[in-house]
Automatic annotation (TrEMBL):
Species: Jiangella asiatica
The organism's place on the tree of life at top rank: Bacteria
Gene Ontology MF terms in the entry: methyltransferase activity
Name this protein carries in UniProt: Methyltransferase domain-containing protein
Methyltransferase domain ranges (all copies): 76-166
Keywords, comma-separated and alphabetical: Methyltransferase, Transferase
Amino acid sequence: MTSAPDPDVAVRRMAAESLAGDDPTGWFERLYAAADDGAAVVPWDRGAPHPLLIDWLGRPDDARGQPRPAGTAVVVGCGPGFDAELLAGHGWTTTAFDVSASAVAAARRRFPDTTVRYVAADLFDPPRAWRQAFDLVVEIMTVQSLPVRLHQRATEAVAGFVAPNGTLLVVATARTGSTEPAGPTEGPPWPLTREEVEAFAVGGLTPVSVEQHDGTPPFQHWRAEFRR
Ligand SMILES: C[S@@+](CC[C@H](N)C(=O)[O-])C[C@H]1O[C@@H](n2cnc3c(N)ncnc32)[C@H](O)[C@@H]1O
């Protein structure tokens, strides 16, 4: 009896080939292109916005005790686009970018009437105009999709998008003593330690909150907010 191929194995193979070739982001385009052809499944495509983003947007702004006033927003590593569409639906003027041109094209096809500006761009070489340009920056599981040696650079790049008085929201899988061994992890993903989450307080950002949300290990998450 033959069993269906495990989609996670194909994803890990693509990632391993990219990483071995010192191209830590190349596999994302290969994965999204293969998904377009029905030859792969994008494992993080939830078909919906992240629940921790939905919850956060529904809360009053702690500083003002009022609903959050919508302004400009950018979604980092937007992938399928559901988080960007949620923000746009809340009135945010939203830009969303991904290193994979196929991911961006798929998001545009999925949401043909969108007001979101979807852009193919690399976090490590973003348009200069995005520097401190957004009232809200949403980073969900992009930094953790990169090898640990790139986390600091990626974190600083994300923080650099936040405008004066702006907010950064980070959601990431948690790497804690209770869910992960203390030594180096073999990714992807490379979940974030508390120290790595706190490191988003860089270049003038200060932490507002760092929360750990329990789930069944290893599905514990950080949700952290920072302000410039
Ligand atoms: C684990 S997925 C998360 C996608 C989305 N944020 C979500 O929560 O569904 C990581 C995403 O980051 C994108 N990505 C990885 N490295 C990137 C980079 N250097 N610049 C822009 N996007 C990147 C990948 O293509 C992928 O869509």
